[in-house]
Write a structure and sequence with these properties.
The chain is of the alpha/beta class. The chain has a domain of 89 residues: Nucleotidyltransferase, domain 5 (2-Layer Sandwich). The strands form two sheets. It has a five-stranded mixed β-sheet, covered by helices on one side. Strands 1-7 form a two-stranded parallel sheet. The longest helix is centred in the N-terminal third of the chain and has 18 residues. About 6% of the residues have low confidence.
Length: 137
């Protein structure tokens, strides 16, 4: 006489608990990622080991006396956007290479970036500013 068990165990896997765990992890990482402060990054310029090369359309220099130069021609800060507009008019997505002395305050660098962003907004173009650095020792 064969005895049959009445309570059979199923071999199915319930995915409801797994999806709950995935959503909890997603919420956890979303909350913790907003707590990361972007000001925690320390910038060590102008030395860099980066080897990014770009097509250079215009080069702006800022010397240790905070003077702006386009090649060898001195430019006043108030005329920076005007001069860059004239230089970049032939390009729709030109590159401005910024070569700055390491003692120059960041505000002078930001002035060049603002001038290029102003040109982009005014003309609907996509010019970029690249900060040139020397190779790290």
């Amino acid at each position: 006489m064969a005895i049959k068990a009445r309570n059979k165990k199923g071999v199915e896997f319930n995915m409801a608990a797994m999806s709950d765990l995935v959503f909890l992890l997603l919420i956890f990482f979303m909350i913790t990622s907003t707590l990361v402060s972007p000001n925690a990054i320390k910038l060590l310029l102008p030395s860099s080991s980066s080897k990014t090369m770009a097509k250079q359309n215009v080069t702006i220099y800022i010397d240790d006396q905070f003077n702006y130069f386009l090649d060898t021609q001195r430019i006043e800060e108030s005329r920076l956007q005007e001069v860059l507009t004239a230089q970049l008019k032939a390009y729709s997505d030109g590159t401005v290479v910024l070569r700055s002395d390491k003692s120059v305050p960041v505000q002078y660098v930001v002035s060049v970036i603002d001038a290029v962003n102003g040109i982009n907004e005014k003309n609907g173009q996509k010019h970029k500013v690249i900060l040139a650095t020397k190779p790290a020792k």
